[in-house]
Specification:
Blueprint lengths: L4 E10 L2 E10 L4 H8 L1 H4 L10 E3 L2 E3 L10 E4 L7 H15 L18
Parallel strand pairs: 1-5
Antiparallel strand pairs: 1-2, 3-4, 3-5
């Protein structure tokens, strides 16, 4: 019985560099199998499949996800900071600087009497 091959890409991006690998793999291979076969783990030892999330075309998937022809596997780096916390700090700074209303957090209302 002949093994059917499909074409997939593996993508990993750093701030100043991106790597795109194109491979032919067996139909039905999982994301984990293809990443391990690609050699990208040796090229970037900081990738840890137990902690890094992966996706296919921007949609997060599990490592056991079966691939189909044309899929692009994306290996995501961990976030450096929590986006919610950054937004919270920016809002507090805007209040302190007078760019935001101290009560509502929205834009200051010029019609509202200042106390």
């Amino acid at each position: 019985m002949a093994v059917s091959l499909i074409r997939v890409e593996i993508v990993y991006a750093l701030p100043q560099q991106q790597t795109v690998l194109s491979m032919r793999v067996s139909e039905g291979d999982s994301v984990r199998q293809v990443i391990e076969q690609s050699g990208i783990l040796q090229q970037y030892p900081e990738i840890n499949l137990d902690s890094n999330m992966v996706g296919v075309f921007g949609r997060q998937v599990k490592l056991e996800h079966a691939l189909v022809d044309g899929d692009r596997i994306e290996i995501y780096r961990p976030l450096l900071a929590d986006p919610k916390e950054i937004r919270r700090r920016r809002a507090e700074q805007a209040k302190e600087e007078g760019r935001a209303d101290k009560v509502t957090g929205g834009r200051p209302d010029p019609k509202r009497a200042k106390k």
